[in-house]
Design goal:
This protein is of the alpha/beta class and 367 residues long. Helix 6 crosses helix 7 and helix 10 crosses helix 11. It folds into two domains: 209 residues, 3-Layer(aba) Sandwich (Rossmann fold), CATH 3.40.50; 91 residues, no CATH class.
């Protein structure tokens, strides 16, 4: 298990260009009306039509129609109870959910740009520096550290950074085909490069090692001399049908799990990832939470932390790095922690990039 556990939230990906969940729909709408997502226009329009239909809720109840987490949760619950205001045929609810996933995928692929150097891609800032820090911890720090990363993000910025630093990543559900210092990367809500096998319903990652062999320089929406979009999700069906051994048929949408729902439908496929996350938390000596604001709606993480952090290892530090200086995020974490954790807790109003040199100073280099 890991001595050091990193927990990355949407605020970390924000620095790489990804929208936050709170303004995700605004960004998606801007892309739609700027004609930047015409190949997915049908899906974007279906989602915004569904949101328009949900306006009827406001006559009797409150629902945040500007937050994609709230919309995702409403549609998933509506699928179960066979009722969503504005969608007359219950059979159309799964279509709206599939379109919402397409919107999430396309918005991330268009907004996150990977730096380009000749025919190679690099991870967006500050993920390259983050991978350098992780490699330092596992190869040079004294005493030697083991590291794992838990993330709520769907994008592959950290995956790319780890791959290029020979850190795997190891997704638990399937080990990386290479990586001398492979680090566990636990993507709690799924990933753009994870597919669902139609027959077995197992998760099948498209590892970057395999992807880059087939598509050395990914062709994306925005490609120029300096940056490129990595549209790996659109390659999933093609890769597993034409290049996997043996060939398999996968679902067209990648594994995108609702941020706020109880995730019951995803339990069987993702339980190894969640179990590993709990085990790493139980053994952690240092926990660094970066860019995650612990929203009130996220009961999943609250319970995962409560059950997972109970272990025999002595927690030396738990530090939250988040640029929110209002005190609200700090207050939410204070209510999450028990007396033992509070004694080791610290809140620092810093960005992802600002946190990295601060963390490295805590772990001296080996002589």
């Amino acid at each position: 298990m890991s001595n050091v556990v990193f927990i990355l939230g949407a605020g970390a990906s924000k620095q790489a260009g990804a929208p936050l969940m709170a303004n995700f729909l605004d960004v998606a709408s801007d892309l739609l009306w700027s004609n930047l997502v015409n190949d997915k226009r049908e899906h974007f329009e279906r989602v915004f039509n569904a949101i328009g239909g949900l306006q009827a809720v406001h006559s009797k109840a409150q629902l945040d129609l500007n937050n994609i987490e709230s919309i995702f949760t409403a549609l998933e619950l509506g699928r179960i109870i066979q009722r969503v205001p504005g969608i007359e045929d219950p059979n159309d609810i799964p279509l709206a959910i599939a379109s919402l996933k397409e919107l999430i995928v396309k918005t991330l692929e268009v907004t996150i740009a990977f730096p380009r150097y000749k025919d190679d891609i690099k991870p967006p800032r500050p993920y390259e520096a983050f991978a350098t820090l992780v490699k330092y911890l596992v190869t040079e720090a004294y005493p030697k550290k083991t590291v794992s990363v838990l993330t709520f993000n769907y994008d592959i910025a950290v995956d790319c950074a780890f791959f290029l630093e020979d850190l795997g990543p190891n997704y638990i559900i399937e080990s990386a085909p290479r990586g001398r210092h492979a680090v566990d990367l636990l993507k709690l809500h799924g990933s753009l490069n994870w597919a669902i096998e139609k027959e077995s319903k197992k998760i099948r990652p498209l590892h970057l090692h395999n992807s880059l062999k087939k598509w050395p320089l990914p062709i994306g929406f925005r490609e120029n001399k300096f940056e490129v979009n990595y549209s790996i999700a659109s390659h999933l069906v093609e890769y597993f049908a034409q290049h996997a051994t043996p060939a398999i048929e996968v679902e067209p949408e990648p594994v995108i799990v609702p941020p706020s729902w109880n995730k019951a439908d995803y339990h069987q496929a993702l339980s190894p990832v969640w179990a590993s996350a709990a085990n790493h938390l139980s053994e952690a000596e240092s926990i660094f939470i970066i860019g995650y604001s612990l929203p009130e709606t996220d009961s999943f993480f609250r319970h995962l932390f409560a059950l997972g952090s109970a272990g025999k290892s002595a927690l030396r530090r738990i530090i939250v790095f988040n640029p929110d200086s209002s005190g609200e995020t700090d207050k939410r974490f204070q209510t999450l922690l028990g007396p033992g954790s509070k004694a080791r807790y610290e809140y620092r109003p810093n960005t992802f990039e600002q946190s990295l040199p601060q963390i490295q100073k805590m772990f001296p280099k080996r002589n």
